[in-house]
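User: Let's play a game. I give you a shape written as tokens, and you guess the letters that built it. Ready? Here's round one.
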């Protein structure tokens, strides 16, 4: 079983566990090292403090012992002798405690020598005092020599103690540095955790992004690419559902396109005969018609024109339904398409005596020529339809951030603010222009919006100045760039 075959829930839990586990281990290990260092530091400080206190007590006891010995030798008081012996025992006890507090052999040897010297003092001071009178001036000199030797030993003890304390302090510093180094080294776990998190985020989001792209293709009407996404069971279930939907939509798409092409062809063939016959009747080519017959022929003629317009809209709508045309992208000179659409509408333009003001930059784009022509034709036909006789229509093009912006404006009645969001709805028809006989189907701008959606473009109604009437439409299309010339 691979990681990609795991469910999203399992992937999430596994990823969280793998990301959190190194961090937890590093945290526990770091806390353990810091706790060990703290305990060692506390023990070292306690031992150092204890030894220093005992050394100070040993020094003060030694001074008292020297004073007691001198007093005893001068006064020869038995109570002073007992006090001298008691103080000697206390010093020996302190020396023993110091020996137990330290594991250093040299320090213990110095303390042993110190204890032996104290013992020799006790053993020599009292017997010597018994053999010499108090007035003998030589009795204090040997005592002074012995105490000087004792002081020398104590100084050596103090120096060794300082060396040991320095060693303890250095050991604590080294331990702290070692813990610091370990903590710094453990920081490598952070990028490892980030890497693990990135891997699992990729494993979870990568198939979701692929699904999103496939859904976007379905939204654009592209039903030709099979949807096959590898990933967790949930992703595969969604992919299979999308694939089933794609095949169903593709079948419906083909059915709709086939039906519209068939019905349009079947309608246009008899409609052409009806239109030709109506024209002959209306022009009195087969005999003079009375007034009532002429009126009926006029109604038939207008109805035929209206039916023909509906069939043309139906054919344009079939272009929207036909997803196979989405791959027909080519290099398009937008000026050529605009001028061709204007040429196709030449009769309508002449009939209303309209003036075209063109401000077209020479811009090219990669897109579907047929669909671009349908978009421009539908917008331009509305501009012609709603323009007053002898009115003006302005067409301009510009380039912004590699996007074509094509604006078409007229001097018609305009679009009310509350209706601007409705004009792109299927079969919605706004107020008809004055003196208009043929009504539209309400599909023109719906077709425009759907085609622009497939071409990754957009359409919007722009505000016109307060002192102007009419409508200004702007369409935006991607993948555009300038050519060298201008029209």
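Assistant: Ready! My guess for every position:
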């Amino acid at each position: 079983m691979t990681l990609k075959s795991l469910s999203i829930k399992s992937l999430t839990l596994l990823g969280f566990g793998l990301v959190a586990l190194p961090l937890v281990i590093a945290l526990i290990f770091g806390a353990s090292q810091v706790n060990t260092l703290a305990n060692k530091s506390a023990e070292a400080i306690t031992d150092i403090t204890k030894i220093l206190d005992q050394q100070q007590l040993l020094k003060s006891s030694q001074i008292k012992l020297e004073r007691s010995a001198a007093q005893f030798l001068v006064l020869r008081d038995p109570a002073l002798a007992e006090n001298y012996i008691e103080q000697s025992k206390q010093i020996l006890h302190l020396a023993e405690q110091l020996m137990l507090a330290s594991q250093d052999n040299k320090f213990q040897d110095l303390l042993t020598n110190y204890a032996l010297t104290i013992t020799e003092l006790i053993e020599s001071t009292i017997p010597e005092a018994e053999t010499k009178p108090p007035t003998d001036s030589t009795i204090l000199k040997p005592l002074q020599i012995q105490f000087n030797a004792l002081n020398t030993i104590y100084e050596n003890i103090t120096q060794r103690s300082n060396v040991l304390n320095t060693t303890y302090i250095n050991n604590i510093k080294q331990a702290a540095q070692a813990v610091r180094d370990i903590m710094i080294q453990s920081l490598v776990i952070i990028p490892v955790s980030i890497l693990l998190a990135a891997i699992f985020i990729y494993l979870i989001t990568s198939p979701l992004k692929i699904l999103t792209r496939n859904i976007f293709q379905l939204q654009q009407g592209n039903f030709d690419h099979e949807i096959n996404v590898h990933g967790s069971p949930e992703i595969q279930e969604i992919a299979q559902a999308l694939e089933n939907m794609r095949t169903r939509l593709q079948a419906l798409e083909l059915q709709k396109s086939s039906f519209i092409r068939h019905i349009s062809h079947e309608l246009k063939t008899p409609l052409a005969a009806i239109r030709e016959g109506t024209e002959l009747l209306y022009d009195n080519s087969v005999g003079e018609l009375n007034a009532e017959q002429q009126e009926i022929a006029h109604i038939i003629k207008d109805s035929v024109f209206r039916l023909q317009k509906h069939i043309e809209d139906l054919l344009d709508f079939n272009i929207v339904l036909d997803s196979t045309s989405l791959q027909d992208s080519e290099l398009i000179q937008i000026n050529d398409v605009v001028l061709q659409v204007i040429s196709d509408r030449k009769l309508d333009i002449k009939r209303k005596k309209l003036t075209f003001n063109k401000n077209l930059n020479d811009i090219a784009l990669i897109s579907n020529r047929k669909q671009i022509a349908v978009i421009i034709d539908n917008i331009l036909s509305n501009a012609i339809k709603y323009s007053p006789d002898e009115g003006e229509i302005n067409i301009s093009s510009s380039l912004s951030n590699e996007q074509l912006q094509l604006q078409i404006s007229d001097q018609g009645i305009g679009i009310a603010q509350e209706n601007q969001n409705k004009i792109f709805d299927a079969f919605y028809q706004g107020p008809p222009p004055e003196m208009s006989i043929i009504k539209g189907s309400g599909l023109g701008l719906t077709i425009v919006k759907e085609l622009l959606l497939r071409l990754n473009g957009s359409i919007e109604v722009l505000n016109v100045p307060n002192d102007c009437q009419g409508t200004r439409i702007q369409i935006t299309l991607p993948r555009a760039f300038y050519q060298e010339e201008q029209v």
